[in-house]
Structures are given as structure tokens and as C-alpha cells.
Amino acid sequence: MERPPLMPGSSFWQRLLPIMESLSGYGVRQWKSDLSAGLTVALVLIPQSMAYAQLAGLPAYYGLYAAFLPPTVAALFGSSRQLATGPVAVVSLMTAVALQPLAAGGSPAFIGYAALLSLMVGLLQFCLGILGLGLVVNFLSHPVINGFTNAAAIIIATGQLSKLFGVAVDSGGNHLQTVVQVVQAGMNYTHWPTLMMALFAFAVMVGLKRISVRIPGVLVAVAATTLISWAMGFEQRHTQPLAAVADADLRSLVVQFNAETSQLEQMEAERTRINDRLKAARTEGHRFIAIETQHNLDLLNYRMAMKHKIVREHLRRLRSLLFKPGRSEDGAMRLYVAGKRPPDIKAMDGIWRLEIGRQPLDTAALPFTSGGAVVGAIPTGLPEFRLPAVDSHGTLTLMPSAAVIALLGFMEAISIAKAMAAKTGQRIDPNQELIGQGLANAVGSLTQSYPVAGSFSRSAVNLQAGAVSGFSSAIASLAVVATLFFFTPLLYHLPQSVLAAIIMMAVGGLINAGGFVQAWRAQWYDGAISIVTFVCTLAFAPHLDRGILVGVVLSLSVFLYRSMRPNVVDLSLGLDKTLHDAVTHGLKECRYIDVVRFDGPLFFANASYLEDQIRLRRKMKRSLKHIIISAEGINDIDASGQESLSLVVDRVRSAGIDISLSSVHEPVMLVLRRTHLLHKIGEDHFYSTLKQAIRAIHEQTHRGGSERDCPLTSVRTLASTPEFKGA
After folding, report:
1. How far apart are CA 605 and CA 644, in angstroms?
2. In terms of DSSP bridges, do strands 323-328 and 345-347 run parallel, antiparallel, or are they unpaired?
3. CB-neighbour burial class of residue 105 (10 A; exposed 0-12, middle 13-18, buried 19+)
4. Which is nearest to 64 in space by CA: 430, 452, 461?
5. Which residue in 621, 607, 695 sits closest to 656, CA to CA?
6. Beta strand 567-573 with 593-599: parallel, antiparallel or unpaired?
7. CA–CA dist 463, 83 (Å, integer)
8. How sure is the predictor about 7, in pLDDT bands with cuts at 50, 70 and 90?
9. Whether the predicted pLDDT of 688 surpasses 70
10. Distance (Å, rounded) from C-alpha 693 to C-alpha 485?
11. Run of H or E including 196
12. Are 594 and 627 in contact (CB under 8 A)?
């Protein structure tokens, strides 16, 4: 499919790099505007990208990698001049959900799969753009997006509660179970300095936003809390040998945990070997070996599931423990459970918690913390450039999520771009925007980025700051590069609870309860679809794609139902002397002429419905002499439609009733000519307007009739005798 040029007479370079179009008339004044806007966006982009990386299950600094190349590439190849691309909340959450079945969050494998997902999303978007298939995004209707976005915002916000309370829990069977576990853990113990840091960040961001939207409240909150964290020694980490734990049962529990996790690691390695043997057996056609190997794999998966339950229980117990430090009589450091101090240990101040994941613990140096979690060390310099490792298992597993993220990310980007274009008057090319977003994700995967999309908040900042071209995004990217080279040590002490607060502030703008009301007012079924999508997204979380799938299926089902049963109404003259739906406006109908309007294309899905509606009118109106089909709503007709129309003509005329058509569109008329239905109906039974049809038919149908004031020529309401007469 040949794609149209960006603008009439646009050059090859303007089509290849749409940003070249903005160079016309570009001077010092425009450069200063882009420079100011780019630096302003960077002040928001840097802390937000780090927060969103955590939401995606990645180390915080991977957000800077995602904010390095993708914004510039999207600005170079996209059609919008002010769209700010980079890490966003919903795509970050969906990335974490997509990668959870493949690897542990933050692990090297998880990071590798994130880059692979970015490459897949980019290639899908790029291919859709090249093929001119930007309209495929229409499958995600506004009610579906509204329901999904509201649910995703709640999921994202509640997903940050563990960081706000300073607790760690394992993911439950669904998001609600996880939230319940976080609340229970928070009731057991909350690290108050962590919570106070988050509340302080909230206060700074909200307060500065009320004072002036131009003040970078996010950056001020990050700078202030980082400085406070460094000054007060917010991060407090310790290591102690297992022997320092006074309780023998707890020492035994740690040993059991190490044994179970070590066995799980061995099982993981064994599962990899069995999968390799199964793949080889299927490739070589050894059917019975493949069946036996698959059986062994199923048994191993069952054993691993049981082992995971044991490990989760051990994790729950160990994470719930609060240790108090103390000194024994010989001066050695000892740890005991709070409230159970042995008599030979002298208590010290502080509460220690065991830092534990799903890997075996080093019994010679158990990791404890008595402070809050911080971002920690960030590698200085640019990320390593490399192509993501591609494997068939990971690719097949990620494909559904990649498709959903590609469509959702593009829809978010194009919605933002169109909203800004309405203010600037710029022309937006959806297919070119798809190409820009696709290249941004694909190129970003080479620098260990995860999927990105257009950001509404940063785009709004970009526009308000006076950006006139995509160069503002390039300047923001350069600011990220400068941060990676020179300022990463300053971010070490940034509390993770502050990043959680930034995320919660950002997603607050995604909650739009009025969207449900507006959809319901438009059509009750649109409101119902939005509500069902919202509920299903929450219920299925963390499997967000299922919520979208339910919404899309419902939208398509409603569309098919409406296509199969389009609006069919009888017309009469209204008070404004034009024809209206008689039922809706409470108008009487003519006894002898039935003016029927069919609102929709006449095709295989609804052809029989037209027959049913005409049959119903013949049955209800015994004095009927003529039917006029107002075809202004029929913009297309297929073979089934013309066959159905032919049957209607035969049956109506065999009953002694004549039939005519008015306002027939040219494409429909061409079909009627080719199928000779025009000749069958009679060319003298086709009228260019409905008024002409009524004028030509009215006298002969009413000759000898008892109807004095015809509702097609004078206003006749059901409530009273009309005062206005037609000509």
C-alpha cells in the first residue's frame, strides 16, 4: 500500500525525517524555545523515568537508558513536533506483567527479556506503520481504554504501597491478594522514616503545583529528599553471621530456606535440560521419546510448584520477623526477635529486618537493614550497545503482550499528538507516528531500554514550555546523557519511597470517573463496556491483557449486533416541517404510505432484518398502498443485500403494494444496475429526494381514501390535533 506524502510537494528527506519539515524558517528564536523546553522536560523526565523503571521491575537507572535514545528517535521520525516519548506508567506496568513468567524482577534474564520485548514492540509498530495499518488501533474503543486506564491507575498506585510502608511481600495469586498482604505487613511493621519521606515528597509536589505549574515539583522533591536521606543516614545496612541469631528455631528456618531455594535452582537447571531434550525429540520426530520427556517435564513442574509454596511460606515468616540488636555478656553482637529478649543479652536501639529474596542466603553474612531503601549505585556512562538475545520460547511467550503494548502505546501516543495538534494546527500522520514510535522502541532495545510510549504529562510540559520542533526532545535526551556521565553519584541516596510517590502522583491524572458517566450518557452499552473492562482488569490483575481482551470482545460484539440490527424507523412530518422518526417524536403515521428509513449498510449480516421489518409493517398496516425506502443511510450493499431487496420487492408487489426508493447513493446504484435490480424495480420508482418521492406518490395513493390530513404533508401528533398544516 502506497503511503501518502507528509505534505503536498514534500521532499524525500521530509518523508524520511519529518523533523526536517520544521527546519523551514527555523532560527535562533526557535532554537532558544526548544532549548528551554527540552531542559524543562528533562527536569521531569529524569526522576519520572527512574520511577517508572522500578514499576517495570527493573533497576531505577534503566529508566534513564529508556530516556536516552527513544525520545530523540521518535522526534526524528514521528510527525508530531511536541510529543514527548519515553517511559510511561501503563506500559511500564504491562512490561512487568509480561516478563514475570520468564524471569525474576531485576535479574539479568529479566533485563534481557525487557530489551527483547522493546524490540518486538518496535518491529510490530514499525511494520504496521509501513503497511499503513494505523487504523488497527480503532479496535481499542474509547470505553475500553477508559475502563482499562482507570483500573491500571488503581493497580499501579496500590502496587506502590509496599515501597511507601517499607515492607517486602511476595506476589499473591492476583493483585488484590498482593495488596492485602502488603496491608497486613504494614500493620505488622511500617518503617516510619520511609513513609514520612514519601509524604514529604507528596506535599512538595502538590504544593509547588498549586503555586505554579512551571516549577518542577518532581525535581525539587527528588533533590530535597535525596539531600535529607544523605544527611540523616537514611540507608542503614548491616551483615551478621547466622550464629548471631539467638533463636535456634530461626537459625534452623534459615537453613531450611537455603536448602529449599538451592533445590529450586537445581530444578530450574533440570527443567532447562528437559526442555532441550523435548525440543530435540520433536525436531527429530521421536514421538515416544517426546511423550515420555513431556511426562517428565509435567512431573518436574508439579514438584516445582509444591516447592515454590514451601519457599513462599518460609519467605513470609522470615520477612515478618523484626529483630532487635543486642550485646551478649562477652560483648558479641546478637540478634533476637523483638519482644523475646534472652536474659543474657543487653538490648540496643533499632529494629533490624532481614533482606531476603528467592536466592539462598549467605550464612556467613546475613543481610539486614534498619533504614530505608534507596536507589543505590548507578553505573556511570552510557549503556552497552548490543542486540537483544532472541530465543524462540521467550519470543512466543512475549508475543501477545508485545501486540497489546504496541497498540496501547501507540494509541496513547497518537491521542496525545492529536490533542496537541488541535492547539498548534499541525497535521498528524498516524502511520508516520507508528513508524516513529516503532523505531524508538527498536533502537532503544539496542541500549537495554524497555518499551516506551508518548507521555501526556511531559508532552504537556513540552508544549507549555514553548517547544516548536522535535529538537526539544533531543535536548532532553542530551540532559539524560549528562546525568548518566556526571550526576549519577548524586542519585545514590534517593529514597525508593519517593519514586513510589512520583508514580502515584503521575497516575492520579489517569483516573477519570467522569469517563464512565460520559460513556453511559452517550450509549448505555458503551458505559457498560467501560465498567466491565474496568472490573475485569482489576479482577484479572496482574494479567492486564485479559481485561483489554474482554473489552475488545464486548465492543466487537456490540458492533456486530448493531450491524445486524440497524435502526429502522418510520418517518412523518414534524413541527419544523421536516421528516422525523414518528415514534420518537410522537407523530401519527400515514395510513397509505409508509416511509421507511434504514440506517446502515445493507449486507449479509442484516439483509434478513430488512425483510423482517418490511413484513412487520405490512402486517400492522392493513391499508398500506405504497412503501418508500429512504436509502440515504444505506451507503453500501453486497450480494446478500441486493438479493434480500429483490425478495422484498417481489413479496410487497405480490401483496398489491408498490415500492419505491429515494436518496440512493451512487455506489449502491451501481450495484443495482449491475445486478439488473434497477430495471426490476423500475427507474421511475427511484427518486433523488424523499420530498420528490412523496410528492409523486401522494395523490394516487390517497385517491378515494378517508385520510383528510396526511401526516406526511401536515403535522399530526399523537397528543393533539396539529395547528400547523403543510403545503
Report:
1. 11
2. antiparallel
3. middle
4. 452
5. 621
6. antiparallel
7. 8
8. very low
9. yes
10. 78
11. helix 192-211
12. yes
Q: What percent of the chain has pLDDT over 70?
A: 96
DSSP 665-694: -HHHHHHHHHTTHHHHH-GGGEESSHHHHH
For residue 276, the one-letter residue type is D
Q: Find the helix or strand (DSSP H, E) in which 203 lies.
A: helix 192-211
Q: Are 461 and 41 in contact (CB under 8 A)?
A: yes
Cα dihedral 167, 171, 177, 180 in deg (nearest 10): 0
Which residue do the cell numbers 453511559 mark? 520
Query: Pairing state of beta strands 626-630 and 658-662?
Result: parallel
d(CA 520, CA 609): 27
Q: What is the CA radius of gyration of the chain?
A: 34
For the record, the C-alpha cell of 400 comes out as 501477545
- Which three three-digit cell numbers place residue 444? 532503544
Q: What is the DSSP string of 264-332?
A: HHHHHHHHHHHHHHHHHHHHHT-HHHHHHHHHHHHHHHHHHHHHHHHHHHHHHHHHH--EEEEEETTS-
Give, to the nearest 10 degrees, the angle between helix 430-445 and helix 392-424.
140
- Angle made by CA atoms 306, 309, 310, in degrees to the nearest 5: 90
State how far the Cα of 39 lies from the Cα of 249, in Å rounded to an integer: 57
**Under a CB-based contact definition with an 8 Å cutoff, are residues 237 and 362 in contact?**
no
Percent of the chain with pLDDT over 90: 44
* Dist CA 45 CA 84 (whole Å): 9
Distance between CA 242 and CA 720 in Å, rounded? 94
pLDDT beyond 50 at 586? yes
**Residues paired with residue 280 on neighbouring β-strands, in sequence order:** none
Averaged pLDDT for residues 600-621: 92
Query: Could you count the other beta carbons within 10 Å of the beta carbon of residue 272?
Result: 10
Quote the CA–CA distance of 439 and 4 in Å, as a whole number. 19
What would the pLDDT profile of 258-293 be if each residue is shown by its tens digit?
999 999 889 888 888 888 888 888 888 888 898 999
Report the relative pairing of strands 345-347 and 237-240 from DSSP bridges: unpaired
Beta bridge partners of residue 374, listed in sequence order: 495
DSSP conformational letter for 490? G
* Cell 434478513, residue located: 608
Distances (CA, A) of 525 to 240, 516, 528: 61, 11, 5
Q: What angle do CA 34, 38, 41 make, to 5 degrees?
A: 140
Of the candidates 303, 88, 352, 312, the residue with the CA atom closest to the CA atom of residue 178: 312
Helices first, then strands: H and E counts in the chain: 27, 14
- Per-residue pLDDT at 6 exceeds 60: no
Residue 154 has pLDDT above 50, yes or no: yes
Q: Which residues contact 406 (CB under 8 A, 6 or more apart)?
A: 121, 124, 125, 128, 438
Provide the pLDDT for residue 1. 41
**How many of the other CB atoms lie within 10 Å of CB of 253?**
16
Instruction: Measure the CA–CA gap between 616 and 86, rounded to whole angstroms.
Output: 58
Q: State CA 363 to chain mean position distance.
A: 44
